[in-house]
Structure to design on (622 residues):
């Protein structure tokens, strides 16, 4: 079996109790690429990520990783291939950054096997990469939001998985830290060839950083493909109910969504209705 | 994509990775200090009381060539009392650490999970219905009551097959209040039960022969081994169920194993000494600032801190109203209440 790290869903239904959140989803997320999942609030983005990472069992359908049903895989075996950064992880009390990142090695360890040099190397590398090496002896609960998010990413990196799932990794961060996190994700993909699947809110950022884009609306697939092909004014209108123009990003040439001015405030040019 | 991650890559470099074997030994002085303090407490527990015995006489008595009443007090009363105090304190301390770990709630303890109240109710019913009079006879009823309460609290907390930590703590607290009221009802209905049970219900190390400890020794050891075995997984569980699951932790199974460890430990403790509150709550909070939140250190730390707190409270109880004495359960409640208030403030912050 080839390991291309291709996640796909077949007729996936995800429910919370009686409520159907994601319905009949057939999806293929290309391996070795950065995929962004976007959509309006409550469209099922985060729920889909929970389904893809086995946190939520499907009510119907399957989720497969390179053809194997992830809900039939042992927890540890999956944890060796797929890392996850939840939207709001719990910050443990009295735990240093390094101790937090060391937990990423959990699936690699056995009950009686000691901490190995390889484990330490993975931890050191994750700390270096995320720029948290200088913070390694600081308690996580004392860090700022941006530092904390980088520590969490370091934890996921130390897990050393080919596939990385991130649920809104830029929420609660200022612009500088948002870019830091997204640049790090891009570097991981470019240098280490990791497959990344992330839920994002900002369409411009999604278009900039993702190779593949999945657009959800009301738990159903609205569009999927390369951002340049998928993201246009019609899609934004039908999915987000926003009138806009989509122009090439002056920096990168990727699609940039510019909402049309509806309110009269702050318009220097006459807004065309 | 060149240079995109320059801000991250130029992070501070460390000359050498910190040595791994050293890590475990970093806390050795603290552990040795804790053991020394525990030794001192045990010595005081052997020497002090209504009748104070010089340490030299204590030593003679322990070595078997002591004579007279003092030696008899030491070997006959204070040795069992101290040994039981060590075992019960250790059980409560470790049970508290695991309870807080599996519920991810710093206010969780054997008391808040309803375990003490369950044991209390079972013993009171047994005294009432079966006319028991000897603490040795209470052991199995206490254990059964503790286990039943814990199982019931877990059942209350079940939601969609998973245990919800907040519901577990809430359910346990509600269960505890219900059981306490039933206990009071039984005691008010029967003067004889009230007279028999009230000293046991206060929680005490006094007047228990070592025979009360032997039956629960296997469950104590099993509970301790289970607690040590789940400790690494509790570290991952501290990151939330989602993160723990993503790290490959079988969350539900670990929580169940931890719950069993708590029942075995706290059930054994309450069976021997009666309900003693606050040791399980306080021990982890005493250890955490010293050793950090790593459960692989926290559990052994509480193994020392638990008996340290319990023996200190017991010795205090013998000194405050000499020649009479205060039950250790009353002392711990007295000292523990302000602690709980302090913790609640800290958690709410």
């Amino acid at each position: 079996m080839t390991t291309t790290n291709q996640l796909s869903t077949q007729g996936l239904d995800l429910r919370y109790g009686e409520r159907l959140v994601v319905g009949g989803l057939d999806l293929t997320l290309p391996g070795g690429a950065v995929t962004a999942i976007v959509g309006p609030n409550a469209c099922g983005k985060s729920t889909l990520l929970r389904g893809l990472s086995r946190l939520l069992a499907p009510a119907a359908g399957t989720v497969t990783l390179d053809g194997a049903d992830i809900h039939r895989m042992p927890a540890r075996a999956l944890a060796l291939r797929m890392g996850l950064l939840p939207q709001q992880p719990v910050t443990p009390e009295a735990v240093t950054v390094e101790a937090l990142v060391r937990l990423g090695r959990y699936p690699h360890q056995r009950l009686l096997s000691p901490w190995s040099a390889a484990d330490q190397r993975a931890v050191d590398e994750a700390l270096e990469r995320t720029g948290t090496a200088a913070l390694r002896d600081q308690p996580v609960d004392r860090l700022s939001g941006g530092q904390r998010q980088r520590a969490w990413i370091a934890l996921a990196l130390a897990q050393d998985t080919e596939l990385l799932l991130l649920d809104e990794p830029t929420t609660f961060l200022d612009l500088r830290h948002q870019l830091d996190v997204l640049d790090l994700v891009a570097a991981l993909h470019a240098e280490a060839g990791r497959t990344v699947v992330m839920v994002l809110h900002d369409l411009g950022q999604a278009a900039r950083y993702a190779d593949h884009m999945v657009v959800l609306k009301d738990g159903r697939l609205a569009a999927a493909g390369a951002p340049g092909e998928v993201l246009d004014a019609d899609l934004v209108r039908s999915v987000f109910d926003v009138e806009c123009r989509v122009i090439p990003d002056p920096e990168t040439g990727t699609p940039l969504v510019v909402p049309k001015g509806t309110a009269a405030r702050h318009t220097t040019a006459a807004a065309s209705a | 994509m060149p240079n995109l991650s320059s801000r991250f890559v130029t992070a501070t470099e460390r000359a050498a990775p910190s040595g791994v074997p050293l890590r475990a030994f970093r806390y050795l002085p603290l552990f040795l200090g804790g053991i020394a303090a525990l030794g001192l407490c045990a010595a005081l527990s052997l020497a002090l009381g209504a009748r104070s015995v010089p340490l030299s006489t204590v030593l003679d008595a322990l070595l078997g060539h002591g004579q007279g009443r003092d030696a008899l007090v030491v070997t006959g009363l204070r040795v069992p009392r101290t040994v039981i105090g060590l075992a019960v304190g250790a059980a409560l301390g470790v049970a508290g650490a695991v309870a807080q770990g599996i519920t991810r709630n710093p206010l969780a303890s054997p008391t808040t999970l309803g375990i003490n109240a369950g044991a209390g109710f079972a013993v009171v019913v047994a005294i009432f219905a079966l006319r028991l009079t000897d603490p040795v006879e209470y052991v199995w009823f206490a254990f059964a009551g503790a286990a039943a309460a814990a199982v019931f609290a877990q059942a209350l907390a079940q939601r969609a097959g998973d245990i919800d930590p907040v519901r577990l703590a809430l359910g346990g607290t509600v269960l505890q209040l219900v059981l306490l009221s039933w206990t009071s009802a039984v005691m008010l209905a029967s003067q004889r039960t009230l007279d028999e049970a009230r000293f046991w219900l206060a929680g005490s190390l006094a007047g228990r022969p070592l025979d009360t400890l032997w039956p629960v020794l296997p469950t104590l050891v099993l509970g301790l081994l289970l607690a040590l075995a789940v400790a690494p997984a509790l570290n991952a569980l501290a990151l939330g169920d989602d993160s723990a699951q993503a790290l490959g932790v079988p969350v539900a199974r670990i929580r169940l194993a931890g719950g069993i460890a708590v029942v075995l430990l706290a059930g054994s403790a309450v069976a021997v000494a009666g309900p003693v509150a606050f040791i399980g709550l306080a021990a982890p909070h005493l250890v955490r600032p010293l050793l950090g939140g790593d459960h692989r250190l926290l559990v052994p730390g509480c193994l020392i801190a638990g008996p340290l707190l319990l023996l200190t409270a017991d010795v205090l109880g013998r000194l405050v109203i000499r020649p009479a004495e205060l039950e250790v359960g009353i002392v711990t409640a007295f000292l523990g209440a302000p602690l709980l208030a302090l913790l609640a403030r800290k958690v709410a912050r």
